[in-house]
Amino acid sequence: MKKYHINNLSCCRICSNPKLTKFLTLDQMPFTDNFVSVNESAEEFLNDINVFYCPDCMVAQTQHDVVVDDYYEDYQYSVGSSQFAREFMDILALNIKQKFFNMNNSKPRVLEIGSGDGEQLLSFKKIGFDVLGFEPSSTLCKIADDKGISSIQGLYKDGSNLLLPDKFKTVDAIMLSYTFDHLPDPISFLKNASEILNKNGIIVIEIHNLELIAERNEFCLFEHEHSIYLTESTVNSVMERLDFKVIDFNIVPIKNRRANSLLFAATKKSSPAYIDSNAVPGTPPEYKNISKYFSISENIHSSIDRLDNFLGHNFSLGKKIVGYGAGGRGVMTLAACNNAPNIEYMVDMNVKFDGCLMPKSNIPVKEVNELLYNKADIILVFSFGYFEEIKETLSKLGYKNNQIISILEILKE
Predict the structure, then answer these.
(1) Is 356 helix (H, G, I), strand (E, B) or coil?
(2) How much is the pLDDT for 68?
(3) Which helix (H) or strand (E) holds 330?
(4) pTM score
(5) Can you give the pLDDT at residue 4?
(6) Angle at CA 186, nearest 5°, toward 181 and 188?
(7) What is the dihedral of CA 23, 25, 31, 36, to 10 degrees?
(8) Which candidate, 20, 186, 189, 173, places its Cα nearest to that of 96?
(9) Could you give phi then psi for residue 135, rounded to 5 degrees?
(10) Dihedral sign for Cα atoms in the order 163, 169, 170, 173
(11) Which regions of the chain are under pLDDT 70?
(12) DSSP H/E element including 83
């Protein structure tokens, strides 16, 4: 078992206010990717996740950082097996080109922070961008390299700009997909990004949307790996602190986005090309009041009770329950549930999970083909962003729609 050191903070990550209010606690939660071998004792990392609200800048956040350098070095998360995800990446790259670089005859340079297996950069490369990734996982860097995508291996932090090759000392676009809300110091990151972004350059960020978390009771997204939880309004205020302005909240239509996506483009306020461009946030005013956050907490705990009751009731009827999606949503949702062991096994398209146990819940993980001969009565889908795609896969294995249930059907009641 790896040992992880926890740094506890004493003030807001964004505005340094020391007086934050805790509104949610999830007891003894694991890392999303800390799977356990069946041959090892299940002594994975567990610690409470406490989520706070800052009354000054109104940003929801954790107040602890787990030192995770080794954890990300081995990280292997990828959505490259999903046709829906690949189409999203292609749409995103094409829309960025058409909206921001359509009149540019040169090859725009894009740097992706947290570039993973290079799939998003491949979409940019195919339509004429020069691309470079920055990725802490050596495994994912190797996969990206095999696709012809160059990456710098390591965590992007203060001093990382010195590692960039001369061609990328100045870039036209910086891309972060579900990376910005992992950063322990978002303000420091924006300072570093500003140094290498040209005067009309854009920064494109996809993060988890706190409004959608609240609407769906999607508590699985409160993770040790996540530091901040933003709305469109707090995105605006955070970016303005470093003299950026948001110019687009709709780069990709909602119907083409992944499960929980707040996607935006920003540029420097001084940018000559975007003097009159400003995106208006649509966040409801109640998100400025701490009572909203206590309501979120209450609803989340009610949703956990509903899921426990669902698992307990169907198990008592003798039904075999299987989960689909052993990634972060499955891990964190089940880690909060007392009746998680009522799920007989989990399946996932990512073969790296096969033969492992889910952290904390210790549910065994199998390949999807396990469903062919180890039949389930109910398949509970945690990867709901790919629900239609998953239903098609399961229908080919002989399962009917009434056996397949999205986790959202239970959490949102």
Answers:
(1) strand
(2) 63
(3) helix 328-335
(4) 0.93
(5) 79
(6) 155
(7) -160
(8) 173
(9) -145, 130
(10) negative
(11) 1-3, 40-42, 68-81, 104-105, 413
(12) helix 83-100
DSSP symbols for 25-58? EEEEE--TT--EETTS------EEEEEEE-TTT-
Indicate the burial class of 308 (C-beta count within 10 angstroms; 0-12, 13-18, 19 or more).
middle
Beta bridge partners of 278: none
How many H helices and E strands in the chain? 12, 20
**Strand order of the sheet with strand 365-367?**
365-367, 343-348, 321-324, 378-381, 404-406
User: How much of the chain is in helix, strand and coil states, percent to nearest 5?
Assistant: 40, 25, 40
What pLDDT score was predicted for residue 74? 52
**Per-residue pLDDT reduced to its tens digit, 34-48:** 888 877 655 789 999
Burial of 120 (0-12, 13-18, 19+ CB in 10 A): buried
- Spatial separation of the C-alpha atoms in residues 297 and 282, rounded to whole Å: 22
- How many residues are there in the chain? 413
Tokens of residue 182, six digits = 């992992």
Q: What is the pLDDT of residue 69?
A: 57
Bridge partners, residue 263, by sequence:
206
Region of 181 please: left (phi>0), alpha (psi -120 to 50) or beta: alpha
**pLDDT, position 152:** 97
With the C-alpha atoms ordered 55, 9, 179, 358, is the resulting torsion angle positive or negative?
negative
